[in-house]
Amino acid sequence: MAHKYYSQRTGTNPNLDGLPIEDTIGLFSRVFRQLEIDGYFDEAFGFYCVDAEHIDGNVKDIELEMLLTIRKKNLWPISEYAASYSEDDFLDVIEFLYQHVSKPIDGTMHSYGGCGMHWETFNKKEGQKVFREKVNSVLGHYKNKFELSEKGDILHKPEEGFEKIFNADVPSKDMNIVGRINAATTNFRRHGSSIDDRRQAVRDLADVLEYLKPQFQNLLTNKDEKDLFNIANNFGIRHHNDKQKTSYDAAIWLSWMFYFYLSTIHVVLRKIEHDKTKT
């Protein structure tokens, strides 16, 4: 755990809950600039040479590429537009850069005029790893809690106490189960996910439990089974009918349903695997 300084311990620090968006973007801009200087975007965006001036990278027109992929103008160059970014702009740019970063591995030194390294060999996977570590360090200071995943998606950070269940591998060799759970988790946590997206994620987890039911039915009484599926069946998640309860705060209760089902699935899968090893 990071050391807490005096004003953080006493509760007088004005940013106890995290930094505002403008300060977070300011931190990110400095981190990006350092990576840019170190050559992490030379392969994609090119670089400046004292002899040849700008040498193109794989992306010849960065503004056009952003318009085609993000569908927004006025994002590039970062040094010019970062101060006007909204939260959505900021997180879009992070995801865009993740797709184009690569670690410089080898090249030739151009000493004339102090030009520096002309990198020629790059490693994309290693570059993404470094970028993700640095970006998540920045996002860790932001008052709104996000993180950049290994796939390059901005996700809402898990609620406190549930971090381990997201980091743990799904205890199953059935790729149908693993894929369904991982997809539901990503859809639920992805930045910009709608209430319908979250409801679908809960529905997918309930379907996984339904799929597993024949394997754990002997662990439950009829009442237990009814209680387990009652939430999804009677609260407008799975089957739709006029008897369902829909007048609840979806943003709050969908989160509870999601964590409830995800935790239950992990317990059930571990119990199933445990019973297999005993036979």
Task: Characterise the protein shown here.
With 279 residues, this protein is mainly α. It has two domains: 19-156, no CATH class; 163-278, no CATH class. 54% of the residues lie in helices and 10% in strands. The protein is built from twelve helices and six strands. The protein has helices spanning 6-10, 21-37, 42-45, 62-69, 78-81, 87-100, 124-139, 163-167, 175-189, 195-216, 222-234, 250-278; strands spanning 47-49, 53-55, 103-110, 116-123, 146-148, 154-156. The strands form three sheets. It has a two-stranded antiparallel sheet. The protein has a two-stranded antiparallel sheet with strand order 3-4. Strands 5-6 form a two-stranded antiparallel ribbon. Strand 3 (103-110) and strand 4 (116-123) form a beta hairpin. Helix 9 runs antiparallel to helix 10 (195-216). The longest helix is centred in the last third of the chain and has 29 residues, at 250-278. It is elongated, with a radius of gyration of 24 Å.
